Amino acid sequence: MPDTLPLELDAPPCRLRLLTPDDAPALHHLVNDWEVVRMLSRPPFPYPRELADEWITATQTLCQKGEGFYFAILGPDGRLAGCIGLRIMPLPQTGRAPHDNAPRVGQLGYWIGRAYWGQGFASLAASRIARWALAHLNIDRLTATAAQDNVASIRVLERAGFRHTGTDRQKFVARGTDLPVELFEATRTDISQPRSPKKAPDSAGQAPAATAQLPHRTLMPLPPLALQAVPRRLSKRADHRPRPKLTEHRRGGWSWSVPQHSSTRLADSSGSQA
């Protein structure tokens, strides 16, 4: 890691700095929340307190080796609001083993604590880290992943200049299933000309999250953090027609109601994402 590499970054009104062991209690408090963890790919739920200590230690080791950089996102009050990080990996090359001069990619991930949703912190942090990484690190591009229904995270990546490159499936440990995800990447050319999405910034009540992974005991060294997604809002009825009678359905600890006359097959609500 270069001695001159800046590791304290401004993203007004937020500030970014490397994680330290002192961040563990606040980190655990924010991430041990089902609405946050269910949008992240790697962390379990409940999230054990000691896992926060182990993960921060692992991020410091990666930073010393120049293989990853993980930052605390500090809000205007100076308190931890979330995390954002990059895992530096060799770019896969067909038929060739990685070597010292192989192209490298930075895998971006982040999450924001629920108390700080809807304030644009994820967009500010993602844009700042993307520009910092492509200006200072020996990487060819950045990549990120967001669950398909994680609209807030997809917009964060678009605003930061990332391009959609395809779809895939990814394991979400807390939910115990594989879920569809959208793939994104950004080069220096993309970041120099960010595109604005058609709709507005992180919505209140939504949790932006791009998929780099949070820690799990069996996952060291860790890939980037994961991004949290945002609960979807329900629109108000546009008319005053009487509501149909509802029938409750239950499966796997989840329940939902559907009109008795509906023939539509509903997906299990556990099939969420990021």
Describe this structure in words.
The protein has six helices and ten strands, in the order E-E-H-H-H-E-E-E-H-E-H-E-E-H-E-E. Helix content is 22%, strand content 27%. The strands form two sheets. The chain has an eight-stranded mixed β-sheet with strand order 1-2-3-4-5-6-8-7, sandwiched between helices. The longest helix is centred in the first third of the chain and has 17 residues, at 49-65. With 274 residues, it is α+β, with helices and mostly antiparallel strands. The protein has a single domain (8-243), classed as Aminopeptidase (3-Layer(aba) Sandwich).
Number of strand elements: 10
In angstroms, what separates the terminal alpha carbons?
30 Å
Overall geometry comes to globular
User: SSE order, as H and E?
Assistant: EEHHHEEEHEHEEHEE
Quick one: biggest sheet?
8 strands, mixed
CATH fold descriptor: Aminopeptidase
Helix content: 10-25%
- What value does the Rg take, in angstroms? 19 Å
**Distinct helical segment count:** 6
Strand numbers in spatial order across the main sheet: 1-2-3-4-5-6-8-7
For the record, what is the CATH homologous superfamily label? Gcn5-related N-acetyltransferase (GNAT)
- Which stretches of 5+ consecutive residues score pLDDT under 50? 197-201, 213-224, 226-241, 253-274
Instruction: Provide the CATH architecture.
Output: 3-Layer(aba) Sandwich
